[in-house]
């Protein structure tokens, strides 16, 4: 049986009188890819922020890779997040002054990997997503789909246990979105990490292992 990588237990998040998440219970296992669909304003981004330890719940606890986070201080939460979680956003947020290769090398070096080893891994991953001939190109010289592929590779370069993606194809045309999503699925399946992917595209979501939505602030199956 696969090991749970992400567990939310009774998670709530309120902002003053507004409750966005209400008694969320959710488990994501290693090697599992789950689609999260919900209307704008339903709390998808809030849920991803909670799961990614970027914000603390008002109530409940979030366990990542077997470690509960409720009682961790900010330093420990940050360390757990950096060690175990990769993020992909709708807008790639690449560093414009660096090449595609350098955008993948830098996060690895920050994590303590040597420049040489980081460059080898970056080259391997970028080759997998069809960017072997774009290694030296800066983001401004890459298409939108190519930039998003670089962003996905950057998210998994440090071998996280959990991948969180917030509308990773939402800024792309349908054809490009299909190509990027196919590469994302391939990388997830190859690495065996757990992935929670928010998307408005129900067709893409249904290609994942299961689909959930937010209803009255709670996570429920579709």
From TrEMBL:
Q: Which GO terms describe its biological process?
A: lipoprotein localization to outer membrane; protein localization to outer membrane
Q: Which Pfam families match?
A: ABC_tran
Single GO MF descriptor: ATP binding
Q: Which residues form the ABC transporter domain?
A: 6-222
Source species, domain of life = Bacteria
Alphabetical GO CC annotations of the entry are: membrane protein complex; plasma membrane
- Name residues in a coiled coil: none
Cite the PROSITE patterns for this sequence. Answer: ABC_TRANSPORTER_1 (PS00211), ABC_TRANSPORTER_2 (PS50893)
Please state what the protein is called: ABC transporter
Q: Which organism is it from?
A: Elstera litoralis
Recite the lineage of the species. Answer: Bacteria, Pseudomonadati, Pseudomonadota, Alphaproteobacteria, Rhodospirillales
């Amino acid at each position: 049986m696969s090991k749970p990588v992400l567990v939310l237990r009774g998670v709530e998040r309120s902002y003053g009188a507004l409750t966005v998440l209400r008694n969320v219970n959710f488990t994501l296992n290693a090697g599992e890819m789950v689609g999260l669909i919900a209307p704008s304003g339903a709390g998808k981004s809030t849920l991803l922020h909670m799961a990614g330890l970027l914000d603390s719940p008002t109530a409940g606890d979030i366990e990542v890779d077997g470690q509960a986070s409720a009682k961790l201080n900010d330093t420990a939460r940050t360390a757990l997040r950096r060690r175990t979680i990769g993020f992909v956003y709708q807008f790639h947020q690449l560093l414009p002054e660096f090449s595609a290769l350098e955008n993948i090398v830098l996060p690895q070096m920050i994590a303590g990997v040597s420049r040489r080893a980081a460059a080898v891994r970056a080259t391997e991953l970028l080759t997998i997503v069809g960017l072997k001939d774009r290694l030296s190109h800066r983001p401004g010289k890459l298409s939108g789909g190519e930039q998003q592929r670089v962003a996905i590779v950057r998210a998994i370069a440090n071998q996280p246990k959990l991948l969180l993606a917030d509308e990773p194809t939402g800024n792309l045309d349908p054809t490009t979105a299909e190509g990027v999503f196919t590469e994302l699925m391939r990388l997830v399946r190859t690495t065996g990490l757990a992935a929670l992917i928010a998307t408005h595209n129900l067709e893409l979501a249904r290609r994942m292992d299961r689909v959930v939505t937010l209803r009255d602030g709670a996570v429920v199956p579709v």
